[in-house]
Amino acid sequence: MFKKGFLFLAANPLHDGHKELMRFALQDVEHISVYIGQRSKDHILPYSIRSTALQAMISYEGLTDQISVLGAETKFKSLDFSEYDLLIAGSDFLNQMGAPFEKNHADFISQFKHIAMNQRDDTPLMNNARTAILRNSSLITYENNRKGDISSRKIREKYRKGESVKNLMPPCVKDCIEKYVSVFDLE
What we know:
By secondary structure, the protein is α/β, with parallel strands linked by helices.
């Protein structure tokens, strides 16, 4: 078992797929530190809302001893990744390292000796990303148990179309973000 895992999320919005990835990873790691991206664009929920939603989900799921959220004062470039045994990521995130223009992304991922990922049906890990990962790291794959795939992009689309997002995110997350979802119309 690994001691400490690192999970990078945009969480725009947080959903059941993220929750499932964290639950899978907790089978292999004692503690997960989550970093929420601090990029600010018109179609991204404010950092404080995404952070509050994540904290609410962690509490709702009874995972406060196993998962912590790195605070807003934590700057990505100042993180020491050598203290983490495991990078936890989705296949969509890992596939970005296969693109030639994403050198910084590949450099970041190569700092981890072990990587755990959630394999989504609609976003399989591409061969070039798998090859790049296996050059430096071992790979643990969790199979998605959900019927149908889920992604933040699909949830934002549903909000824009006025469709239901029920059963796609924990109720506590929906409650946290509900009055801010109009930002998704700006995408």
